[in-house]
Amino acid sequence: MTDYGTLATDPIFGLPLQELWFGLVFFILAMFLFLDGFDFGVGALFATRDDEAERETLLAAIGPFWDGNEVWLVVFGGALFAAFPAVYANLFSRHYLLMFAILGALILRGLAPEMYEQRHDEAWQTWWGRSFVVGSVTTPFLLGVFAAHWLLGVETLVSLPGVVVGLAVVALTVVAGVGFLGLKTRGALRDDIVGYGPKALAAYLALVVVTVGYLVVMRPDLGVLAPIPLALVALSLVAAAGYVVALRESRFTLAFATVPVLVFAFVALVAVLMFPMADPAAGLTVSDAIISILPLNIMSIASALLLPLVFAYFGILYSSFSGPVEAGESYS
């Protein structure tokens, strides 16, 4: 048993808390990209719909979920600040404009469907429908730029690898959106939406190949060809094949189940390539940036108690609103 009098000097239960918290930060980021990712994907697919009833169906599909899903981004920022305050400070000061752009895109994405439902004249709904699409596409793009710049230590606002990774994340969210709508829609709408899945997946895989090729040539120090990164790429290819086969066979639950595999493999690849650095641009390793042992132990205990409650909440939420959207249901 652990002597709790040593909380100020030793990791609780002898656990490698530095590495665990580094992994937890990226796990939370992956949860956001998975859960809010299909919301973004639905927002992008909203641009393909002209029929008002179909648009209402898409909005109704994400209505109960998107604001809860967005909380994971707040938790990501909170966990990063709590465990690695120096990294948080460096990233948010170095990418100040990018952070505000992400915030603005999130606000637009959240505000647009609310405003869309307030009036039903054509000009109003056209404006706010387009705003919904812009917010839904811009947010994952900018998050991809942020992830690439964090990994590569880029300090500029825009870079070529940032743009490529940003586009890859947008394509991944469309893949997720199609998988989600396979479960939430029916009939001709679902048949048409499903057709976008393989196209978005092909775009995602192509952009990942470009990114990996760039890293192999320009950043061999990251070890992209090491066993774990290659295994994550292989896992993504297997999940991608399963996604396409499941869509073709109308096994939509299986198709959606492959989405978290793709998302977590992507985020894990970023984390693995970065480790043991926590902030490559500043030269901070995980051990350099982590907080002292006492608050780290306390946070670890609190997280072990709170995370099961969070997962229980989301389990209840998703089970309560499971099944396809019924005729007549709307966002509001």
TrEMBL record:
Any single GO CC term annotated in Swiss-Prot or TrEMBL for this entry: cytochrome complex
Protein name in UniProt: Cytochrome d ubiquinol oxidase subunit II
Native source species: Haloferax elongans ATCC BAA-1513
Keyword Lipid metabolism assigned: no
Membrane topology reported for the UniProt record: Multi-pass membrane protein
Source taxon at top rank: Archaea
Lineage: Archaea, Methanobacteriati, Methanobacteriota, Stenosarchaea group, Halobacteria
Keywords from the named record: Cell membrane, Membrane, Transmembrane, Transmembrane helix
InterPro entries listed in its UniProt record: Cyt-d_oxidase_su2
GO BP: aerobic electron transport chain
Localization per Swiss-Prot or TrEMBL: Cell membrane
